[in-house]
Design a protein that fits this description.
Number of helices: 2
Order of helices and strands: HH
Distance between the termini: 66 Å
Shape: elongated
Low-confidence stretches: none
Helix content: 55-70%
Largest sheet: none
Length: 58
Amino acid sequence: MKYLLTLCIFALPFPALAAAYNRPIPQAQSATAEFWFAIASVTLIAALVVVARLVARK
């Protein structure tokens, strides 16, 4: 326990040695990705319509 304070004092400067954060550059979507996103969106809307009809029956 008596060395804990000493360890903390010496460990404080180490985070300042970390590298700077570089933001990632977003990549453009490919045509294939846009196609699958469109299919997923239509499927989600269809599933929501089916669930809404099932809930409305009860």
